[in-house]
Amino acid sequence: MRATHPTSQRVISASTPGEFSPPSRLRSETEASLHRLSLNNARQRRSGFTLIEVLVVVSISTILLTLAANVAQDVVVANQITSAGETVMDELRLARHTAIAKDRVVEVRLYRPNVPNSFGEDQGVNALQAFIFDEDNATAKPLREARRLPEAIHISEDSSLSTLISDSRLKNDWKTGDEQIPLSDGGTDYSAFRIRFLPDGSTDLDSQQQWFLTMYPRSVKESPPPNYVTVQIKPARGTIRSYRP
């Protein structure tokens, strides 16, 4: 048998397939490179959003914006209703106080323009104005300019919600010294409902009935509306108060 040199055996053994082992430094560098590559891939995955994530964010944002818009609209409407109630009460109180202070008859007229607004819509009863009569109750002069309600609000003409808006309170005795005063949005083409405060603070209303006005958004068709303000007048004393749901 042929003899084999020990060195040759080691070389052959070292070069046997599957048994090669790289130096430790090379392994370390390879592992470090693989680790850096893995981190870069992870960063790239985290740097963007998937389509599902984007859709979820858009959906949530839309819902929140819708809720915020609805809340804001409700607040605006509530403020307009409050403003309308304060406008009506302020004019009625002015009329009563003036009647007592001046010892005169003071008439409050509630205007209903017969011409549509700029949007072609029926305006309804949307303004009021107080007038003071002379000692003979022949000549009437306005205490100030007509007070208008907010554009979106009107006084209900439903007899169950506004007993003051009725044929019995319609002013149709215009005469010299007490003519129709032109309004800015239709001249004298309007109807007027009236209530008079007497020098003792009382009114010309039937004391056997209840008298009130109800204000709410003109866009609401429900009766009674979900949000409104009602102003009540006590006939015998002329006192005024309001109610909110």
UniProtKB/TrEMBL annotation:
NCBIfam families: IV_pilin_GFxxxE, Verru_Chthon cassette protein D. Residues 1-25 are annotated as: Disordered. The keyword Thylakoid does not apply. It comes from Prosthecobacter dejongeii. Keywords: Membrane, Transmembrane, Transmembrane helix. InterPro entries: N_methyl_site, Pilin-like, Verru/Chthon_D. The chain crosses the membrane at residues 48-69. The lineage of its organism: Bacteria, Pseudomonadati, Verrucomicrobiota, Verrucomicrobiia, Verrucomicrobiales. It comes from the Bacteria. This is Uncharacterized protein (TIGR02596 family).
